[in-house]
């Protein structure tokens, strides 16, 4: 039975939802920035490079856990709230089915690419990103589906706040140490515990507000496996062309190079969070518009295109000007990160077209095109990165990332043009 609080809920305006999610993401970005500053300084460039490389690999694999069920959950609940419990049940069943094979693939890949990093770190980060964080993401998607944006923002904030507390505990461990010690395994353990606390809170909150999952039935599970796979492939490919450079730098260059590059990339990622807030707040409306056809989806997404492009331009200029401050924040060991930030400063601008194009396609259930674009971009990015890192180091990785973004955006725009000319519009 759907809770009364949900039945009585009425969606507010997009501006209010965006403000709520932006506030949540603002707090989240502030906490993430503090975690980043603390861990980058305490672990040093090599330790931070090892952690970032492991996290990047775990993130690329972790997207396959659940096979995109959280996106389908949000889509289905946004269109018909009465299906919430069975949709949540289907998402959780698919999560359980996919966890073991994805975990095996992760450990095999880590043994091949991250041979310099302790297995304890690989295992702890893997448990956090593969077994735990996908649950938080799924529960937050349920709230987004019913447009309870404030609650969704809170659920996504909880893991970061828990990690900030863990980072403060790491400071305590470093202070109490009587001799210099490797803090990387300790941070990996604290990171896992923080994510576990977030899962416990999120599940308790969701079950109380919206209710527990219900048995979905075989047909619903098969539908989620079939329809969600493109989202998972797209998500992993997306993570690969954004983050593969981090673990490839660790494998093909040095952990120091991976550390300074990851630090610069992390700063750029933090600046893009408001763009994600606007897209996240508008997602339920986009899904409803997409159910009415491509023209309605284009109209709905067009309304947020100018704010996103304007913010991306301002972000690029701000990052370029502020880059010299990086060594003051992280220490002299990260002097090279100044150039990294300046090279990557325009990624938000390049990525804006990709984000808007993929939102239109996904809203119209044309996720296969998004998947194909991401796969092509990921393959090109990995090939260029493997080719150019031995020649130009992190600069080769940066150029490869830009190239993948341009190629992916072009692919999706061509798919939109083709769909627009079709009668009726192409559907997945």
TrEMBL record:
Pfam families: Polysacc_synt. The chain crosses the membrane at residues 20-42, 48-67, 88-113, 119-143, 155-177, 183-202, 304-325, 337-356, 368-390, 396-417. InterPro entries: Poly_Biosynth_Transport, Polysacc_synth. Its main location: membrane. It is found in: Cell membrane. Keywords: Cell membrane, Membrane, Transmembrane, Transmembrane helix. It is a multi-pass membrane protein. PANTHER family: O-ANTIGEN TRANSPORTER-RELATED, PST FAMILY PREDICTED COLANIC ACID TRANSPORTER. This is Polysaccharide biosynthesis protein.
């Amino acid at each position: 039975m759907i809770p009364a609080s949900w039945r009585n809920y009425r969606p507010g305006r997009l501006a209010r939802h965006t403000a709520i999610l932006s506030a949540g993401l603002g707090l989240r970005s502030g906490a993430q920035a503090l975690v980043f500053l603390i861990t980058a300084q305490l672990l040093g460039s090599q330790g931070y490079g090892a952690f970032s490389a492991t996290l990047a690999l775990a993130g690329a694999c972790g997207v396959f856990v659940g096979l995109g069920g959280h996106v389908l959950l949000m889509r289905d609940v946004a269109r018909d709230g009465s299906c919430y419990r069975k949709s949540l049940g289907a998402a959780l069943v698919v999560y359980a089915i996919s966890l073991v094979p994805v975990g095996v693939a992760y450990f095999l890949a880590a043994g091949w690419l991250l041979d310099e990093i302790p297995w304890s770190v690989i295992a702890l980060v893997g448990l956090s990103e593969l077994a735990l964080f996908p649950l938080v993401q799924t529960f937050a998607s349920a709230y987004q589906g019913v447009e309870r944006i404030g609650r969704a923002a809170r659920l996504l904030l909880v893991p970061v706040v828990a990690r900030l507390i863990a980072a403060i505990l790491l400071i305590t461990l470093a202070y109490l140490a009587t001799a210099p010690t490797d803090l990387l395994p300790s941070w990996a353990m604290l990171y896992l515990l923080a994510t576990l606390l977030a899962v416990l809170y999120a599940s308790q909150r969701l079950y109380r507000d919206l209710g527990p999952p219900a048995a979905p039935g075989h047909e619903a599970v098969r539908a989620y496996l079939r329809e969600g796979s493109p989202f998972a492939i797209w998500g992993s490919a997306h993570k690969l062309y954004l983050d593969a450079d981090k673990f490839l730098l660790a494998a093909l260059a040095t952990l120091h190079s991976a550390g300074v590059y990851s630090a610069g990339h992390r700063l750029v990622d933090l600046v893009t969070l408001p763009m994600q807030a606007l897209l996240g707040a508008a997602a339920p409306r986009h899904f409803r518009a997409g159910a009415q056809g491509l023209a309605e989806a284009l109209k709905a997404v067009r309304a947020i295109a100018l704010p996103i492009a304007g913010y991306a331009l301002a972000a690029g200029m701000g990052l370029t000007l502020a880059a010299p401050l990086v060594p003051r924040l992280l220490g002299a060991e990260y002097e090279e990160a100044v150039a990294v930030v300046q090279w990557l400063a325009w990624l938000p601008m390049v990525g804006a077209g990709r984000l808007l194009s993929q939102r239109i396609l996904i809203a119209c259930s044309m996720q296969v095109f998004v998947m194909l674009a991401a796969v092509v971009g990921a393959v090109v990015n990995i090939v260029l990165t493997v080719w150019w890192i031995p020649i130009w180091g992190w600069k080769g990785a940066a150029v490869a990332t830009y190239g993948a973004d341009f190629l992916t955006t072009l692919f999706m725009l061509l798919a939109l043009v083709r769909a627009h000319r079709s009668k009726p519009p192409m559907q997945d």
